[in-house]
Amino acid sequence: MSTPAPGGFDPPPYPYDRLAEISAVAATHVGGAVDLSVGTPGDPPPSIVVEAMANPGPAQGYPPSAGTVAMRTAFAEWSSRRLGAGLDPETEVAACIGTKEFVAGVPHWLRLRDPGRDTVLYPEVSYPTYAMGATLAGCRAVAVPMRPDWSIDLEAIDPGDAERAVCLWLNTPANPSGGLDDLVAAAAWGRKRGVPVLSDECYVEFTWDGPPRTILHAGCEGVLAVHSLSKRSNFAGARVGAYAGDADLVGYLRKVRQHAGFMVPGPVQAAAVAAWGDDAHVDAQRDRYVRRLERLAGILATVGIEAPLPRGAFYLWAEAPDGDAWGTARMLAERLGVVVSPGEFYGPASTGWFRVAAVATDERLDLVASRAGL
Ligand SMILES: Cc1ncc(COP(=O)(O)O)c(C=O)c1O
Fold this sequence. Notes:
Blueprint: H1 20-27, E1 34-35, H2 47-54, H3 69-83, E2 93-96, H4 99-113, E3 119-123, H5 129-136, E4 140-144, H6 159-163, E5 165-171, H7 183-193, E6 197-200, E7 223-228, H8 229-232, E8 241-245, H9 247-260, H10 266-276, H11 280-301, E9 315-319, H12 325-336, E10 338-339, E11 341-342, E12 353-357, H13 362-371
Parallel strand pairs: 1-10, 3-4, 3-5, 5-6, 6-7
Antiparallel strand pairs: 2-8, 7-8, 9-12, 11-12
Bound molecules: pyridoxal-5'-phosphate (PLP).
């Protein structure tokens, strides 16, 4: 029964599961493999957040699917304070269980709302869940070309695809490339064509080049900003994020998601209030990532690889020698005992590249540096 019916969906292997063999090579080093493949934070969440989760008050009832008033208010206050973007927590903000489920699910719900549209537009070098969300909704996944600076090229979108689009995804700062988009221009593009523009901003506070960008700077009409505490607060294990923007879209998605039973657990919502209420831990984390990115670039230089520092996010995105990303991943496992991600995980346009996540702790990076002779 595990074989799908003819024409049925056969889930591909999960990208990171394909790294088992390379991980085994890295693990032969004394001290074991240092995993720089998945973008999962290696540092702990702040203690105020963990304490709030442990003492959430009465948590026996079902939590509100849209998020508690306290959580939505903490998010709106954070958005105003850190991004300069005002939001009404009553109508323009809602919770998600981390953002991956939202990214994977939203094309399906938008298509239910407008069955005449069947296409998801997304950056051609990007987090793979944008394309997977299209597939899971029975939509066409149409990759949008990127410019050499890794920003999306809106002019390259075929008008026929735009007419059919349930949404356009953007990701600023971008995983894996660190690219930054002109989000105000993207909002205008979507409004002109009636296409919701969904802006995944989970790395927004790790913007290195200029101030943080949010699509909400263009106003809320026709757009959603998608945010996560996974990266901001090293809280990936708790699963909590939020989406915010156009009140009609937020209202519709809140209703659908309530019917489907999407709820962030109550104690996690209490912790989210503490996380969005505090900035000191994020500033400390920013410093850590900058130091680690520089350090990793220095480590790669010892094996002859030049990796530019990104404009945002916490990944190095580098061209593989001879365009052989899998070979480079294997070489790095053999020589440095690290596991990195071949570029094809982020789309067929980036097979000659690879990604290094600066997520390992400083102690693990000490080990890699010593293997590199530094
Ligand atoms: C661009 C991007 N969006 C969304 C996510 C999902 O994060 P989470 O589900 O933990 O909020 C990730 C995780 O790596 C990501 O890189």
